[in-house]
Sequence to fold (256 residues):
Amino acid sequence: MKKNPFDLTGKSAIVTGASSGLGKQFAIALAEAGANVAIFARRKQKLEETKEALIALGSDAIAVSCDVTDTKGIKKAIKEVEEKYGRIDILVNNAGVATVSPSEIHTDEEWNRVINTNLNAVFFVAREVGKIMIDQKYGKIINIGSIHSNVAIPNLPITAYCASKGGVQMLTKALAVEWAKHNITVNAIGPSYFPTEMTDAALTSPAFQEQIKAQCPIGRTGRPEELDGAILYFASDASSFTTGQLLSVDGGWTAI
Ligand SMILES: NC(=O)c1ccc[n+]([C@@H]2O[C@H](COP(=O)([O-])OP(=O)(O)OC[C@H]3O[C@@H](n4cnc5c(N)ncnc54)[C@H](OP(=O)(O)O)[C@@H]3O)[C@@H](O)[C@H]2O)c1
Fold:
């Protein structure tokens, strides 16, 4: 029988920011496909809840407390994963934050927090995991971008977020080109709006819901499980000849 190209049995993965939201969903999708998943975030209790859900799916999951903006902490966390699994096949660089602030009053602190978490940390984690993937001559890196990797949005001042996610797309291309020779693919996913802690405030606004209906051809927010296909494609050998790409999962938002 032909092997299922999306099967992740025996693979080991890291998902950053898996204590909630899309990161938790990505970890579950990988575990359901057979991967052992190490999850990183700062909130220990919520991380443990995700870990229990993964173990219930048969994954040999571990929860690792890690602030992805702390380069020493990243190295320690990745060492723990390498010791546990012996290799790291998949990295989902998902941890992220958003801030809503008109640019003319945007503080240095908030700008730096968004860029440090959404862009700098994506590079720092990829750099450390990349060393292991280069040695093992195999790796699948998936960075979580956004529709705001490509387009801004009226009525929602999120310039730091847009800048960070635009950076994620170019970082994805540059790493893909640099590490192709090591049999590492680097791709990105660009979701539109999905209900999570990050989007809770915006999505409870009736005016913003109307804006989504107007800007998104499918006319609604996404359901987290509608990202499963994209993550499994990029995490598995189904995408062995695809690198440097951002796949928009956005109900057609960026098609218009
Ligand atoms: N929801 C959407 O509509 C949407 C759309 C496009 C892209 N995205 C992207 O999807 C990713 C996940 O967002 P979400 O919507 O699922 O939001 P969320 O529920 O707020 O999750 C964010 C995750 O990132 C983690 N995190 C934040 N700062 C961190 C840090 N310094 N160190 C370690 N972990 C950190 C949080 O964990 P702790 O607080 O426990 O550390 C949490 O698990 C983000 O990159 C976001 O930009 C989301």
Observations:
- Residues 16-23, 40-43, 46, 66-69, 94-97, 117, 144, 146, 191, 193-194, 196-199 surround NAP (CB under 6 Å).
- The domain at 12-251 is CATH 3.40.50.720 (Rossmann fold).
